[in-house]
Design goal:
heterodimer; A: about 190 residues; mainly alpha; 9 helices; B: about 180 residues; 5 helices; 6 strands
Amino acid sequence: MMNGPEIEPTDRELVARVAESGDEDAFRQLYRRHTPGLFRFVAAGAGRSAAEDLTQEVWVRAVKGLRRFRGESAFKTWLFGIAVNCCREFVRGREWERRVAVRTEGEEPAVASQRVEGSLDLERALETLPPGRLQVFLLHDLEGYTHEEISGILDIDVGTSKSQLFKARAALRDFLGASRKPEKGAM
Amino acid sequence: MDELESVRLEIGAQGPPPGLERRVVDDLKRRRLLGPKRPALAVFAGAALAGAALFFAGVFVGKSPASGAAKPGGQFLLLLREDSAFDRAEGAAHTARVEEYRRWAGEISRGGALVGGAELSPDSRDLPTRERGRAQADTIAGYFLIRARSLDAAVQLARGCPHLRHGGSIEVRPLRGRDG
């Protein structure tokens, strides 16, 4: 019996198995391959407290729509496209809640304060970025996508992706530089 | 260390909790998106067809008790169609709707008329390829396969299907060369 190296199935093979027969093992392989990056992206884009629910939602939408995955892009790219939409919807909903609460009670709602309270500089820094810039930053600097790939995921021009990244990096440097400087007179 | 590098490291350290995989898998199974696919003719299953909003669920029909005995007549396909006139239900009304379809399928199954049925997934492809997003005026949302003595008898059976009461329509088509 030959003991050759095991060949990992490609994403496309796994996707076909899940789509055609609901293969749980194939799904778990896809999950383990892509969830670390997906979770990082969602946690940074929508906040750590929402990351588990959103990651679950992304996978549900992905499996529901597997038959629509035509293989024109890599599965991971397609999956992150779904994640971007989930984060956008979530952030829109949170902004709406925040506005409604401010209007009705005249004070910041729990949904806003919860996020900032006790959070790291990092979370506050990410919150300062407009969603588009944040997504470009995460996809490029964290997940290693090229501007061409980001252009496909976010449906923006390559030039826009580049300028968004430049602005995001500058804004983060400014914010973190200012917030991490020791205050004058502090010990 | 560069500020951005520390951001990358902090974000990179965030990993999914170990219990999340089980939670996602369980959710997908509950939605019947994972796990063995049931043979289409063994069940008439499914909750609302997402997007098409047809309300069939959990009706196990299988081979009816009378299916072993050959009957004169033939088999007929009931194509359940819906368009914008279809009355979609949600929440408690949806649950009641599911029960209606379940009862009807159970009745005709006990009478030996039901061969099977299935929901149709909304994830369809057309050949030749149509433009994405093109509105479909009329959708086939599911079907029943029944046996009956004649086309008239099949139509009579189809009249009892709750789909009609909610604004859907049913096309009854005899299968060629299939005796009951």
